[in-house]
């Protein structure tokens, strides 16, 4: 059976996902076969595996850092919020239904066998499993339902725990001490070490606080991890990249920050291009006159279209598009750009809704979710010939009634639509290969009368590999890895519920 280590945090956004990714990379560099695992993930950024199953992107990033193919077993339960109180439940990559929070809380223990089966299957194939928790283990109102999330999962698989606090947001000593204090004694015993994350400055200044923290908790501090500049795809709407409102580069790209924005990682490759400035906009007042407007994916297309309409952003986008500004819609954003959205089976909100009317297409929602990986070639000018590799995740189908398709899939089917300066496609990951990024940059620069000489566009995969190494180097230099290995060894030697003496 594989050794394991679990990363838990004092709060959402403490850096669990990145630390888990760093550990996956470090173990990979050290010659071990490592795999990530998260029993339950709640996020709108998802991914389609090669066998057509859906999982959270955080475990995709961690799998890539470990040098392995993403596998749905790494994230057996995924919750995709569709409202303030409800989520779509996905189990082992398949939709299991729509649940309000209270009803899911009541039934989640029934999922334990499937979660454990996924974990044990991975553990039989890999040397080390890096487990990520969710939120905080000290949410005492949710403790009874912690079946496979934080300490509940740690107990099920007998995992030692690293508890991570975020010093960048302040109060890190209170975060760590308070979290440990609220845990049951047997849960505290599982914490192999405390980690302070996102530190800026001289770690020596923290030494008195670290000593007091160790004294009060009885738990060693295993590292102070500096704020890293590694560019790693983010998990959800807590991402700091969504706060970028100004970027000073030759080309201005405005991504509309929809209330239920999903898969905004599609645009990470654009951010790494030296000529392209990507910012996120949630009001007409700050939209300005960008070179390109992007309508991203969303978990609730119709509700977000209504928000776009009510906020005044729709009118602003329509005016700019009429003036020649380029507009791109991806997945839900593509659906919004059409003539009409119909929901006869109440998949979203029911009824019909007028689209933005910028593309000649119509969407009909249905309960069946399209989940597939594809390769394609862009057919729409001025990007014709760009080779794409991406994936589709959407409810319903869109029929083009005019214009031209955006691209042609390898099986001959057409996808998306294009009409003059407006483009739409269902394909997530469309910029990952670099081919479309390069042509888009050249076209936008040319429209501004700027030099369109070909810059070397690094493939997304090569760029990610460099970032994973940078992340791993930062964490390895600041975390006591000998103590991490020792903690895993102590627990694997005693599989009955705790460390060996």
Structural class: alpha/beta
- What share of the residues lie within helices? 25-40%
Mean pLDDT across the residues is: 91
Rg from Cα: 23 Å
Q: Give the CA-CA distance, first to last residue.
A: 20 Å
Poorly predicted regions: none
Total helical elements: 15
Largest sheet: 6 strands, parallel
Principal-axes shape call: globular
Strand order in space, largest sheet? 2-9-1-10-11-12
According to DSSP, the number of beta strands is 26
Strand content: 25-35%
Question: Can you describe what's shown?
Answer:
Helix content is about 30%, strand content about 30%. Helix 1 packs parallel to helix 2, helix 1 packs across helix 14 and helix 6 runs parallel beside helix 8.
Structural features:
501 residues, 6-stranded mixed β-sheet, 15 helices, 26 strands
SSE layout and pairings?
Elements: E1 3-9, H1 16-29, E2 34-37, E3 40-42, E4 46-48, E5 54-56, H2 57-65, E6 77-81, E7 86-91, E8 94-100, H3 101-107, H4 112-123, E9 128-132, H5 151-157, E10 161-166, H6 172-182, H7 185-188, E11 191-199, H8 207-217, E12 221-226, E13 251-256, E14 261-262, H9 268-271, E15 276-281, E16 292-295, E17 297-298, H10 301-311, H11 313-322, E18 326-330, H12 332-336, E19 340-343, E20 351-354, E21 361-378, E22 387-400, E23 407-409, E24 414-415, E25 417-419, E26 422-425, H13 435-447, H14 460-476, H15 481-492
